[in-house]
C-alpha cells in the first residue's frame, strides 16, 4: 500500500512528475496491501504456465516433416491426453506445494525488503537486478540439482522430473513437491541478496518460468531470441540432460552453460554434439 492519498501527494514527495508507468502503478496499487500484491505472483505463475506451452502443444498436434526439423527428439510423440495429464499433475502439485509456498513465504519477502512503493525501478536497475537473479539462481540451482542426482535424492525426489526423457513445455515444473521447494529456494536467493521492487520480483519469476518452459519444450527454433544470450543453455542443452536420464552426470545448469563448463560436467554433451555435427555435415555433403 502506498503512503500517499493522491497523485499530487506522490509527486510532491518525489519532487517531480510521475512517469506514465508510475502513474499506472499508483492507480493500481495505492489501495492494495503489499501481501495482496505479492500474491499476484502465484496468479502470474499459473497464467504463464497455462498459456506459454500452448504453441508447443499445437506444434506437437500438427506434427509434420516441417515441424519435425525443429523437434529435438523427433521419434517422440505426445498425444493431447498425454500433455493434459502432465498439466493436470502439475496443477495438483501447484496447489499443494507452490501455492502455500508463495503465500507463506511472504514474511521472507517482507524481511528482505522487497518494496512496492515509488519510484519504480529504472530500466538499468531492472536489467542489472534481473541479471544478478539469473546468475545467482543458476549457480545455486546447479549445485542443488547436482545433489539431487545422488542416489537417495534421485530415487526419492528427482526421478519424478526425469520421468520425461523427452520433455514437453508442460513438464517444466513437473516434479516432486520437495523438489519444487528445494529448487524454489534458489529462485529466492537473488532477491535476498539484491532486494528490488515487487515488479522486478514478478518479472523475475515470470522470466524464469518462460526460460524453463522453453528449455523443456522439446523444440529448438533457430529464430528464438534466446539464441542471442551469451552462454545460454537452451532447449537442446537441457533436453540432453533428460535424454540421458537418471545416470546423467551432464548439463545440470538450468539457464547458462558456464557452471557445467567450469566444473567439467558438460564433457559428454560436448562430445556428443561434435559427433552429431560431423555426421550432419557428412550427410549434407
Ligand atoms: Zn536432473
Ligand atoms: Zn528438466
From TrEMBL:
Domain of life, source organism: Eukaryota
GO biological process, one term: lipid biosynthetic process
GO cellular component: membrane
Keywords attached to this entry: Membrane, Transmembrane, Transmembrane helix
Pfam families recorded: FA_hydroxylase
InterPro entries xref list: Fatty_acid_hydroxylase, Sterol_Desaturase_Related
Predominant localisation class: membrane
Spans through the membrane: 35-59, 180-207
Residue span, Fatty acid hydroxylase domain: 131-265
A GO MF label: iron ion binding
Family: Belongs to the sterol desaturase family.
Protein name: Fatty acid hydroxylase domain-containing protein
Native source organism of the sequence: Escallonia rubra
Organism lineage string: Eukaryota, Viridiplantae, Streptophyta, Embryophyta, Tracheophyta
